[in-house]
Amino acid sequence: MKYGDYLWWHKGVIYQIYPRSYKDSDGDGVGDLRGITEKLDYLKYLGVDALWISPIYPSPMADFGYDVSNYTGIHPLFGDMEDFDDLLKAVHKREMKLILDLVPNHSSNEHQWFRESRSSKDNPKRDWYIWRDPAADGGPPNNWLSVFGGPGWEYDETTGQYYYHSFLKEQPDLNWRNLEVQKAMLDVMRFWLEKGVDGFRVDVMWHMIKDDQFRDDPPNPNYHENMNSYSRQIPAYSTDQDEVHEIVHKMRRVIDDYDERLLIGEIYLPISKLVRYYGEDNRGAHLPFNFQLLQLPWEAAKIKAAISEYEGALPEHGWPNWVLGNHDNSRIASRVGKEQAKIAAMLLLSLRGTPTIYYGDELGMEDVNIPEEKIQDPQALNEPGVGRSRDPERTPMQWNDALNGGFTTGDPWLPLMENYREINVKNQRGTKGSMLEFHKRLLELRAKEPALYIGKYTPVPSTGNILAYLREFDADKFLMILNLGASEETFAPKLQWRGTVKIATHNELEGVHLEQSTNIAANQGLIIKID
Ligand code: NOJ
Ligand code: MG
């Protein structure tokens, strides 16, 4: 691609906001749209380019907004359409972008569509959802499971049939084989695109269409007892069907009717299957989310191999992306520890491809231990013991050292981390060496160096727990040296190099001139501009 062909989403950095937990403007203990608008100057200061907001639509909140009961409205908890329009305008005024969460695989059971669908077998919307007769013994039509535990089929007395739900029974799956469903959801996309939103993150894209013969999923030979019940089977027939790519392509066509909008897919699949979501000739999702950094052990050799595998598997002109945290996974600072969280930020913001930062990770926020009686997440409540709670990574943003970290004047929907009086935006902003300033400086450097935002990636062979690579564009070259371990390592590559440290985890190294063979302290990371 030529320099001028790169668009905002190739070059920019995405920041995910979990709206319930970002900033509460009205004291009800739940974050809202006005709260986000209040914090846009903070986000501008931080230096991110696009905001993705988890669902803000009307919803009974069985799965905290991922159960949508009206795709073109705003939940009163979050505000109203005027608040949304104000937010969108304010984002654009600051030359940032706004990405919404689209949840097309399933609606809420309280959506009007489902109410109609379940009312009778001959209702015009019957086929909008996935209804099947009971098996011969009266049980579920096949063995498909729910991600949140138990069977994926729910018996409905009214008509004596079962409906399928990949997640909660309050989240019936839409039938994407039905053309009216397709039209209705593509119209939803147009509704928001007309308003000016800059793109969508599509929820569970790989779930959207199921085997038309409803064949049983095979057992998972690697299942063991402390896994959640969904892991008993390989979802070979209930997810990732060939036909999904036609659907993704249809979504992309809608996106392409507008200027420079972005289509992201949430997809948890191995690389070889993931890259198919770019679509034939890149006519699918622009960015099928790459979750490897959420899943790999924190070891240089494994991460390096995964980067190479991913780089090698990308289709021509398929643009890479990297995700370090989200609302469904343990926070990075808890997974790898505080010291390594800085290395992780350097990695995320210097790999080739669009990075996504999860709110609060820029402060080093950690998972918060939620007492049992306060657990909110249905994934945990549904399968006590094995269903991992996602509450710990969804706690309120820590803004300052006032009560509740400045998140709310009311009673927060989830407790804050005890450390909020130390770890917060107010304390870290302008404080040299803080996690926040570190992020800000990484983002600043990245934004002004094409080598970092679009440059070529070349791995540099290294030993021990060192991960090293070059990023280059025209004559500009950066060498990244990251020590992913807690002991000192020697970095002595065959490659000849000399350069100046631009950003270091340990401030005193910045500006220092280095060359060739050097010792890298425990937990040390360096971004070096090659002379
Ligand atoms: C993926 C979302 O990220 C998660 O939070 C949600 O529970 C499921 N999809 C179901 O919508
Ligand atoms: Mg509120």
TrEMBL record:
Q: Which Gene3D superfamilies does the record cross-reference, listed alphabetically?
A: Glycosidases, Oligo-1,6-glucosidase, Domain 2
Ranges for the region named Disordered are 379-402
Domain Glycosyl hydrolase family 13 catalytic: start-end pairs: 16-394
Q: Which InterPro entries match?
A: GH, GH13_cat_dom, O16G_dom_2
Q: Which family does it belong to?
A: Belongs to the glycosyl hydrolase 13 family.
**The protein's name:** Glucohydrolase
Query: What is the species of this protein?
Result: Salinimicrobium tongyeongense
